[in-house]
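Section 5.1 Outputs to date
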Amino acid sequence: CVSSDVSDKGVQVINLGQLGKAVAHLKCCEGMECKHVVPPELPKKAPVNGKQCPACFAMRRTCHGEVTNCTGDELYCAEGVLDSGMDIIPLKINLKGCANKALCDSLVGYEARSPENSGNHTMRCTPSSSIYELEFSAVGVN
């Protein structure tokens, strides 16, 4: 099991746009305690927060994200490649979307505590911004 500073970050969300949201809550347990693990409660429908990120999901190919509106506490753009690293069952997943702080903090903590696991995947979070802010910034550059 990973350290509690990685597992107790709360409900982790990545918004994949039209595909919906993936929700997780990493929880460590032992023995009988593991038989009574309750799945995370889905977040309530939150309003759009003005942030936008590319969002997509693809297996065995690159995905090109269409812009999606972030909601609630999704303040980061997450982008990653997950690779099984096995020749027998090759599985490569590309994904992008809006993410909350809990997801991003867990990724940072997981890779810091288990660098041997980061060889098969890369995942990063950056603060999201609105498309209009990006266009405005590009116009102001000489």
